[in-house]
Amino acid sequence: xxxxxxxxxxxxxxxxxxxxxxxxxxxxxxxxxxxxxxxxxxxxxxxxxxxxxxxxxxxxxxxxxxxxxxxxxxxxxxxxxxxxxxxxxxxxxxxxxxxxxxxxxxxxxxxxxxxxxxxxxxxxxxxxxxxxxxxxxxxxxxxxxxxxxxxxxxxxxxxxxxxxxxxxxxxxxxxxxxxxxxxxxxxxxxxxxxxxxxxxxxxxxxxxxxxxxxxxxxxxxxxxxxxxxxxxxxxxxxxxxxxxxxxxxxxxxxxxxxxxxxxxxxxxxxxxxxxxxxxxxxxxxxxxxxxxxxxxxxxxxxxxxxxxxxxxxxxxxxxxxxxxxxxxxxxxxxxxxxxxxxxxxxxxxxxxxxxxxxxxxxxxxxxxxxxxxxxxxxxxxxxxxxxxxxxxxxxxxxxxxxxxxxxxxxxxxxxxxxxxxxxxxxxxxxxxxxxxxxxxxxxxxxxxxxxxxxxxxxxxxxxxxxxxxxxxxxxxxxxxxxxxxxxxxxxxxxxxxxxxxxxxxxxxxxxxxxxxxxxxxxxxxxxxxxxxxxxxxxxxxxxxxxxxxxxxxxxxxxxxxxxxxxxxxxxxxxxxxxxxxxxxxxxxxxxxxxxxxxxxxxxxxxxxxxxxxxxxxxxxxxxxxxxxxxxxxxxxxxxxxxxxxxxxxxxxxxxxxxxxxxxxxxxxxxxxxxxxxxxxxxxxxxxxxxxxxxxxxxxxxxxxxxxxxxxxxxxxxxxxxxxxxxxxxxxxxxxxxxxxxxxxxxxxxxxxxxxxxxxxxxxxxxxxxxxxxxxxxxxxxxxxxxxxxxxxxxxxxxxx
Length: 800
Known about the structure:
Layout: H1 3-17, H2 27-42, H3 47-68, E1 80-92, E2 96-108, E3 111-124, E4 134-143, H4 156-162, E5 165-171, E6 180-184, H5 188-202, H6 209-217, H7 225-234, H8 237-240, H9 244-263, H10 266-271, H11 274-292, H12 297-314, H13 321-335, H14 343-360, H15 363-372, H16 375-383, H17 385-415, E7 417-419, H18 422-449, H19 453-479, E8 484-486, H20 489-504, H21 508-529, E9 540-543, E10 552-555, E11 560-563, E12 568-569, E13 572-573, H22 574-585, E14 590-591, E15 593-596, H23 601-604, H24 607-613, E16 615-616, E17 619-621, H25 624-627, E18 630-631, E19 638-640, E20 643-648, E21 664-668, E22 673-676, H26 682-692, E23 700-702, H27 714-720, E24 724-727, H28 740-748, E25 752-755, H29 756-759, E26 762-767, E27 770-775, H30 776-779
Parallel strand pairs: 3-5, 11-15, 14-16, 15-17, 17-18, 22-23, 23-24, 24-25
Antiparallel strand pairs: 1-2, 1-4, 2-3, 4-5, 4-6, 7-8, 9-10, 9-26, 10-11, 12-13, 19-20, 20-21, 21-22, 26-27
Helix pairs in contact: 1-3, 1-13, 2-3, 5-19, 7-19, 9-11, 9-12, 9-18, 11-12, 12-13, 13-14, 14-17, 15-17, 16-17, 17-18, 17-20, 18-19, 20-21, 22-24
């Protein structure tokens, strides 16, 4: 591996380290470490160590600058008049328009105060006619971002921090305030918006419009969740991102058109070579396409490589392609360090490096000579059109095999699944996209630019038909047994370590032996970590942060139970975005039992999303007629792994209150006990005390009904007498949960309340020596997470 690539790789790895910090380095220490790293680098020794150090301090410095750009607390949570500019492409749905807003001025007491901060807003009341570049003076209400804080899953706050968004909120539009349109800035964002509007007109009768829009403009909001899942499971998601393939095709198209047109004029060829003119135009086309995509990492990497390659060609010089890749990697890491730790960065650069490595080692020729005979027959095949096609397909097949194994560690580490049949789906899809779909989309973009809408529509129809055919093949492939291999992220680390060892070693025999040794060591260490599962008779309770809802996972030695599935908001399900990642991160393939306390959305809304991702073996419910499953009311107790489960008879004799239909589940192990209560209210609490008396006593109580004033009576709490109360709720929720008098009741009885709002995910585990307690705030809080008092939850999946 060239030294330049090692240095770029070290710098990139260093920038990733900042994302594991609870606090950023102070400025003085950052400067000192930077000087120390430069001294080591200048000595010519320790290239990897010095670049890692420099990348780390550089990312700290830029992250510190981003942290200082937060809005002052006095403007949070209050009506505020502000002016600014719409940036990026607004997203519309039936209820609202979501857009990013670059604040330039906010007003207080009649005076304007300069400000420069990017915020994310929603304007409710249906789709609004907002365009990128529009300037507005708006009345808004904003807060510090607050996502769902769990050990696994999507970190919304980190996502916004990377994008430079310091607050989120909504436009106040209740008729009592007036908003003012101030004009527009004509910039690349506005051009993108206008082009997208023209594309939307041409896509009215086109199949797969969301995917075509993503290919044309890099805007993926139109791709449905079902399509995203299909693309991921079939290994075709990379074709939808505007990556090196698409930028390279745009550059090649510009080069061919310009050089051909230039050669039509002898005078022009005498003034300047047609090849050089084509290179300039090709780079311009690549830049334009990258700008239309909004400069995502994969497109930026491709453009930088195109630009460096063009400079080398203009100067009639050659360079190792890995050095070109190193220049692109270092450029992205320097200018966008907080995005280096994203999957897109490593998948993009790793894929290109593996392609370079594959072609440079002669792997294609080796495989063809083994299967096709002598090199002479190989040459003959290349002279025959059908032979050339066969050679191309063989090359592509072996390249897909190479990429599957090379990228497997990254895919498993980030997504915990591997599309086995991606070798064959890509064998069909890559040529279809390379030679048909992307050229048609580029042609449609050009036609739209010149307002040839009918031609653009015809081109998009052809592209949509091909995409539909590819997706139909992908559906067949993903429906086959074993199409997707699901593994925990630990296997990705294991595979990455083995792969690095293989690449470092010079001889194949040493590579295999070393990789096998690493594999054995890591598997052994991982086997020891499996002891982290609760032992027989012990259990672990994990209350997930699902905002204003409830989801509790009960882990046993060999079984898993899920109590409630959190809410769903439109197409955004907490079951798919919070519960499924939690189970996958713990290596759970199936849930032995799901208990839906009752049918309310905040408790049962996430069921469908959970079912899509994880096998559910049995379903209990307090309202089985509404949710499906078996009614929990008269189920007998059962024992799993030495832990006893019992549904208590909590339903009052007469009740119409849906909350009192909640399943109440008592869990009793060797070293502790817990009571999960759903949303029961006073009537159910009274029935439990009357029927069970002192036998209700447990160590851990899930606070009924999120701390509502209708629950947690003194009589009930005295009978249960818990050591801990687990409270699941959203910060500043509209219901006012928990009520202060209820919390005071818990404090008076000496019950320690653990609350998901300030603490995030809460985990309690029984041991022979007592309960082990761990929260997200204790172990996983990072520098971009705001204190609980400054944020409140965001519950709309579209805000991604």
